Amino acid sequence: MNRGWVWIPLVFLAGLILGALHPRAELRQTRNELETRKKAEQTPPTQVERLDRLLQLLPMDPPRADSRSQRLPASPASDTASADPESPPALSPTNTDASSAENLTPEERRAQFEARLKQAAEAWRLRAEIARNTFAAQTGLNATELAAFDAAIQTMNSRLETLFSDLANRLRQGETMTPETGLAVLHDASGILLDAYQELDESLPPTWRTDAGPTFDIVQQVDPDVLNPLVEVRDALAVRPSETGMPTPPRRGPIRRLFMPPPPSNP
Amino acid sequence: MSRFFFQLTVLSRFEIADSIRSRRAAAVFALYLAAALLGINAFATALQRLELQLAELLQTGPLQPGALADSLWKSARFRQMIVALVGDRQTALSLLEIPPIALLYGFLAFFYTPFFALLSSTPRVSTEVYSGSCRFLLFRTSRSAWILSKFIGQSALVFLALALSAAAAWTLARFRLAGMNPTSAAWGIALMTGKAWLFSLPFVALGLAISQWVRSPNTAQAAGFLAWIGSGALAWFAKRYAGEGPRIAWEAVALAVPQGFQLDLWRMELAPFLHAAFWLTVLSSAYLAAGYARFARSDL
């Protein structure tokens, strides 16, 4: 009998192995990514993540400084704002920006961030101006009442700025960003917004709410610059050694490469 | 071709009959029986002690033996624990569909069957080559039919041993664990027996391949033992180190050892089972062919 057939099962097995390598490698990679994400969900959030969550929870659109903010799920408020044609251009970089940002020096990145911040602030001012004019037209307020409205809004913005500056200073001085800190800031911020409503109630005619319509929202009058201290301190938190505790990559070599444990995949 | 199959049938029957006549089969059966019975008995004892402690703690009447395991199996927290322990959700949930006693039998069978299969098959060719007795037989048949008959005979022997140990394990469990559902346990154990047998086929082929390469029966048996440890170690390394770049080589290793398909065999769905069955058959053929590549050319 011809002995060549002996090689058929071996060649068949070799072909099967070669054919299965790529799909199995992809499947393994996907599983690893899934595991990493599951683990990331289970680990307690870092200070930066807590601050990001606070920025998202605040009833206003925070200007976003880097690609990390973009990876986090957008808050409903942000979604609404981005869907709104009047909303300012988002500060968060696009995917292309994110990849090109990796090639920039820290100074260039800083300059880029500041330029975006100015652009967003301008857009927000324009939006606030339009909202104020619409409000004035709908309510028919006189010059004194409009001045009272402006004063209440200015007080609200300066209070918010003080609140966020205080928090930023405390974080800079080494205070930890705990869930309690976040809750306290949220409590104070919502209190300031409510106070603004009450001040408007006191200084404007009793019909102002009805005249302004159901779409009036005091949040539209919040100057995005009030959040600048928090966004700035976020960068400082991100570079603290405890926050960047990435494992040191092992030394490479042919054997090490073959036996090296799988690297943590980026979520 | 029909002559080849006729010879194959006759030789396979002879291989089984020879194993029984020489009491080799009795030794193999005893090994499988001892492993299964000792394992199940230890489990039943531990379970009964646990149930006694639990009855004291809960201040209830004595629990029916085996009832605790069944209740535990249905508990949501225990199911979560098993999922975390196995690491693969699908496999873990599949395992929980099997009655606990059948699962234990499966674990035992998957552990000892490869070792016993290698132990019994490694000397099968080398003994006859070493003594020269194969020359009388190979006057009247081809080497390929003889090797294939050895594989069929040894596989049948493993199946008989597994079936016997399964029956004994079920009987012992029925006797010791009165709370156990006998019908579902019987089905579960039968299913595990089939799967363990399928898993043993590449090991039988590997043992015969070693036996074709090595002339001394003792060396062949030692090599078989090393192959059992080596394949287990390779599967572990492959699972641990497979990844991107050069480490993709470990994926190939995982596909070349039977243990790489063990998890697929544990799954209850048809697709992973068929996938594992196909690969294990291909591996068996490849191992046999690798052995035969040498045996076909060797001077007997």
Topology diagram in text:
The complex is a heterodimer of chains A (267) and B (300).
Chain A: H1 7-42, H2 47-57, H3 67-71, H4 76-83, H5 95-101, H6 106-139, H7 143-172, H8 179-203, H9 208-212, H10 228-238, H11 254-259
Chain B: H1 2-21, H2 24-58, H3 67-74, H4 76-86, H5 89-95, H6 100-121, H7 123-131, H8 134-137, H9 143-176, H10 182-213, H11 217-241, H12 249-256, H13 262-266, H14 270-295
Task: Work out the helicity level of chain A.
Answer: 55-70%
Rg of chain B, Cα atoms, Å = 22 Å
| Element pattern of chain B in H and E | HHHHHHHHHHHHHH
Name the average pLDDT of chain A: 71
- Find the biggest chain interface: A-B, 26 and 31 residues
Oligomer: heterodimer
Largest sheet of chain A: none
Estimate percent helicity of chain B: over 70%
* Mean pLDDT reading of chain B: 86
Look at the helices and sheets of chain B and give the structural class: mainly alpha
Features:
heterodimer; A: 267 residues; mainly alpha; 11 helices; elongated; B: 300 residues
Plain-language structure description:
The complex is a heterodimer of chains A (267) and B (300). Helix content of chain A is 67%, strand content 0%. Chain A starts with 6 loop residues before the first helix and ends in an 8-residue tail after the last helix. Chain A contains 11 helices and no strands. Chain A has helices at residues 7-42, 47-57, 67-71, 76-83, 95-101, 106-139, 143-172, 179-203, 208-212, 228-238, 254-259. Chain A has 2 domains: 8-43; 46-242, no CATH class. The relative contact order of chain A is 0.13. Chain B has helices at residues 2-21, 24-58, 67-74, 76-86, 89-95, 100-121, 123-131, 134-137, 143-176, 182-213, 217-241, 249-256, 262-266, 270-295. In chain B, α7 (123-131) packs parallel to α10 (182-213) and α9 (143-176) runs antiparallel to α10 (182-213). The longest helix of chain B has 35 residues, at 24-58. Chain B is globular and about 75 Å long. The model of chain B has no long low-confidence stretch (mean pLDDT 86). Classes of the chains: A mainly alpha (267), B mainly alpha (300). At the A-B interface, α1 and α11 of A face α11, α12 and α14 of B.
